[in-house]
Design brief:
The chain is mostly helical. It has helices spanning 5-13, 16-26, 43-71, and strands at residues 2-4, 29-31, 34-36. It has a three-stranded antiparallel sheet with strand order 1-3-2.
Length: 81
């Protein structure tokens, strides 16, 4: 069965690029805007997509935190001579 990736985004709760990456990792075919399965959407696919989405969100938060701390001009303490 073929599913529109844009229709799966709100159902599965993962971004478009995460669904494409999950399909690539798990060996499913992506043809343009369609994600192709031999039947129903496997539970393993959904779980893997959720895991990749969590990893993406955590990386985004770390990046934002690094940008914020860099922008505050924090300096490391220097030992006195």
């Amino acid at each position: 069965m073929n599913f529109l990736i844009s229709a799966l985004v709100p159902i599965i709760g993962a971004d478009d690029d995460v669904l494409r990456d999950t399909a690539r990792v798990m060996g499913y075919r992506v043809v343009g805007p369609l994600l192709c399965f031999s039947g129903e959407i496997p539970v393993d696919f959904i779980l893997e997509a959720h895991q990749l989405q969590k990893m993406k969100n955590a990386a985004k938060q770390r990046k934002q935190k690094a940008i914020q701390t860099q922008g505050q001009g924090q300096r490391f303490p220097v030992a006195a001579d």
